[in-house]
Amino acid sequence: MTKTELIKILAQDVRITQKEAEAVIYSLVETITREVAVNGRFSLVGLGTFTRAARAARVGRNPKTGESVKVEAKNVVKFRPSTELKAVINA
User: What is the pLDDT of residues 33-81, one digit of tens each?
Assistant: First the structure.
């Protein structure tokens, strides 16, 4: 599903305009992004939890040439699905 399709479905389900639905989606994404960046965590009951995690520096390989490449440490976002979402997926 694309963001455009999500906006159309949200607009139909809640009976709002697509512009309003788009604003809701953008606000949700901005809120999740800000919370993970500032507090390191965002939980939405029934969906799951987004968390910020540190990934250590490592030595990787260039798949084309096979030469070693230093990959710097960085923060990544991890998602852990809720038990409700897991149940739906595995039903």
Answer: 999 999 999 999 999 999 999 999 999 999 999 999 999 999 999 999 9
User: Sign of torsion, CA 57 62 66 69?
Assistant: negative
Find out whether 50 and 78 touch, Cβ atoms under 8 Å. Answer: yes
Question: In whole angstroms, what is the distance from residue 48 CA to residue 80 CA?
Answer: 6
| Candidates 4.10.520.10, 3.40.1620.10, 3.40.50.2300, 3.50.50.60; CATH matching 3-89 | 4.10.520.10
Structure tokens at 63: 């798949």
Nearest to 26 by CA among 3, 55, 42: 3
| Residues 38 and 29: beta-carbon distance below 8 Å | no
